[in-house]
């Protein structure tokens, strides 16, 4: 499997044009201490692809997902985008806390270990998980600020 994400997925995760990605939600899968899969939802405002191999995550502190990543250093990103299902294995390490963060989060730096795209010959994927923001302007502003902090 390739160890980089496709140009299409990079477009979703590049931190640009967040308003056009505001309805897209992705699954971030980790493993709990007792060995069970755990799935969390993340948005385009919480993950940033610096390029095809390097990503950063900004996650809520104190969550099961954050604890799982801190413990194992691993996660799998699953999303549907541009008619394909994408499965991305990530190796992650914790970044230092930003003292002046507008939106304090647990921050992680990651490397793509493998990436796979899936399509079916008998059906088209027309959507993945989609969300509707309750306070669109406020959320988009927070996402932009969060991604800017991930760039530091």
Give the SSE map:
Blueprint (H helix, E strand, L loop, with lengths): L6 H7 L11 E7 L5 E7 L3 E3 L4 E6 L4 H9 L1 E8 L2 E11 L11 E13 L17 H16 L1
Antiparallel strand pairs: 1-2, 1-5, 3-4, 4-7, 5-6, 6-7
Describe the fold and architecture.
By secondary structure, the chain is of the alpha+beta class. It has a single domain (7-151), classed as Pnp Oxidase, Chain A. The protein is built from three helices and seven strands. The chain has helices at residues 7-13, 64-72, 136-151; strands at residues 25-31, 37-43, 47-49, 54-59, 74-81, 84-94, 106-118. It has a seven-stranded antiparallel sheet with strand order 2-1-5-6-7-4-3, with helices on both faces. A hairpin with a 4-residue loop joins strand 3 (47-49) and strand 4 (54-59). It is globular. The mean pLDDT is 94. Keywords: Oxidoreductase. It comes from Bacillus glycinifermentans. Residues 21-118 form the Pyridoxamine 5'-phosphate oxidase N-terminal domain. This is Pyridoxamine 5'-phosphate oxidase family protein. Pfam families: PNPOx_N.
Q: Main attributes?
A:
single chain, 152 residues, alpha+beta, Pnp Oxidase, Chain A, 3 helices, globular, oxidoreductase
The gist of it:
The protein is 21% helix and 36% strand.
The dominant shape is: globular
Q: How confident is the prediction overall: mean pLDDT? A: 94
According to CATH, the homologous superfamily is Electron Transport, Fmn-binding Protein, Chain A
The tally of beta strands, per DSSP, is 7
Q: Determine the structural class based on helices, strands and strand pairing.
A: alpha+beta
- How are helices and strands ordered from N to C? HEEEEHEEEH
Residue ranges: pLDDT <50 for 5 or more in a row? none
Task: Please name the CATH topology.
Answer: Pnp Oxidase, Chain A
Computed CA radius of gyration, to the nearest angstrom: 15 Å
Strand order of the largest sheet: 2-1-5-6-7-4-3
Count, helices: 3
CATH class: Mainly Beta
How many domain units?
A: 1
CATH architecture: Roll
Q: Distance between the terminal alpha carbons, to the nearest Å?
A: 30 Å
Helix content: 10-25%
The amount of beta strand, in percent, is 35-45%
**Biggest sheet overview:** 7 strands, antiparallel
Keywords: Oxidoreductase
EC number: 1.-.-.-, 1.4.3.5
Protein name: Pyridoxamine 5'-phosphate oxidase family protein
Organism: Bacillus glycinifermentans
């Amino acid at each position: 499997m390739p160890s980089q994400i496709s140009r299409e997925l990079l477009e979703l995760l590049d931190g640009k044009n967040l308003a056009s990605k505001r309805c897209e939600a992705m699954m971030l899968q980790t493993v709990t201490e007792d060995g069970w899969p755990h799935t969390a939802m993340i948005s385009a405002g919480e993950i940033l692809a610096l390029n095809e191999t390097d990503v950063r995550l900004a996650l809520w502190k104190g969550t099961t997902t954050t604890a799982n990543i801190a413990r194992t250093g691993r996660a799998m990103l699953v999303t549907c985008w541009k008619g394909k299902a994408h499965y991305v294995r990530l190796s992650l390490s914790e970044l230092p806390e930003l003292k002046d963060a507008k939106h304090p989060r647990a921050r992680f730096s990651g490397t793509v270990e493998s990436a796979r795209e899936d399509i079916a010959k008998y059906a088209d994927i027309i959507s993945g998980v989609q969300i509707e923001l309750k306070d669109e302007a406020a959320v988009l502003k927070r996402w932009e600020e969060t991604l800017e902090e991930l760039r530091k």
